[in-house]
């Protein structure tokens, strides 16, 4: 019962992503071929709202639901690892046709082939956990 609110928000978020066509493979394909502004508009508005939210959290010193201060640690300096990580993420997104959140939404809409993608993502996360200590961070 305590986690019901998170389930309901997740269902709402899934419905919004399906209705906005953000989980559509065709829309993602258009985006990677620079043929449509649709996905860039969705991503851009999310980034813009995120910037405003982080600014307000820091400015007003908002607290969490447990009345704890929300502390956002500064990012580590260095561009290379973000470029490499973003490139790998983008390749996976382009090959699978979905990023991590929409993978589950697509299974919910009946695209059962996404179960293979989810399995690959879980396997990749497991392998990363095994080799994490050997990688430069």
Topology, please?
Elements: H1 4-19, H2 25-32, H3 38-60, H4 80-96, H5 100-108, H6 114-131
Helix pairs in contact: 5-6
Account of the 3D structure:
The protein is an all-alpha fold. The protein has 6 helices and no strands. Helix 5 runs antiparallel to helix 6. It starts with a helix and ends in a 6-residue tail after the last helix. The mean pLDDT is 88.
- Derived structural class: mainly alpha
Number of DSSP E strands = 0
Strand content: under 5%
The description of the largest β-sheet is: none
Given as residue ranges, the uncertain stretches (5+ residues, pLDDT < 50) are none
Whole-angstrom Rg: 18 Å
- Overall geometry comes to globular
First and last CA, distance: 39 Å
Helix content: 55-70%
Q: Please provide the ordered H/E string of secondary-structure elements.
A: HHHHHH
The average pLDDT score comes to 88
* Separate helix tally: 6
Quick structural overview:
With 137 residues, this protein is an all-alpha fold. Helices cover 66% and strands 0% of the residues. It has helices at residues 4-19, 25-32, 38-60, 80-96, 100-108, 114-131.
Give me some keywords for this one.
single chain, 137 residues, mainly alpha, 6 helices, 66% helix, globular
